[in-house]
Design a protein that fits this description.
The chain is built from one helix and nine strands. With 133 residues, the protein is mainly β. The chain has a single domain, classed as Carboxypeptidase-like, regulatory domain (Immunoglobulin-like, Sandwich), CATH 2.60.40.1120. It has a four-stranded antiparallel beta sheet, with no helix packed on it. A three-stranded mixed beta sheet has the order 4-1-9, with no helix packed on it. Strand 6 and strand 7 form a beta hairpin. The longest helix has 18 residues.
Length: 133
């Protein structure tokens, strides 16, 4: 019985190492990691990262983790990038949503004005985006 349990555990470990734990990457796509921080090194840990193909129509998004990291899956090519980090305040008079409070300057929330771009390719290193204050 003991060797049976050990054998099943060993098989499970080998399968996880071989196959991986994340969802499969569609054919022709690239999974890559990245990190978003401010110029002082503090992570931007709320919101998301948006991608728009410099040529073509592909778009993508990635959610920011509290440590500023993200994982995205896109086709190879050049992408304009935006960092959306804002929260909505409650309007105390109406109880509805109030104005957005931008946690990074608003210009970085638009792929046309952020100034960020990346080249996506197989085996690329992690992306580092630094948002000026």
């Amino acid at each position: 019985m003991r060797s049976f349990v050990f054998s099943r555990a060993l098989i499970t470990v080998v399968v996880l190492i071989t196959v991986g734990c994340g969802p499969p990457v569609p054919a022709g796509k690239v999974r890559f990691k990245g990190h978003v921080s401010r110029t002082n090194g503090e992570p931007v840990g709320y919101g998301g990262v948006n991608f728009a193909a410099a040529e073509g129509t592909e778009n993508g998004t990635a959610k920011l983790a509290p440590d500023g990291s993200f994982v995205a899956i896109l086709s190879p090519g050049r992408f304009k990038v935006a960092v959306n980090s804002a929260k909505s305040n409650i309007d105390t008079k109406t109880g509805g949503l109030g104005e957005l409070e931008w946690l990074v300057p608003k210009k970085y929330a638009d792929v046309q004005t952020s100034g960020f771009s990346i080249d996506v390719s197989q085996g690329m290193p992690p992306v580092s985006l630094v948002v000026p204050d």
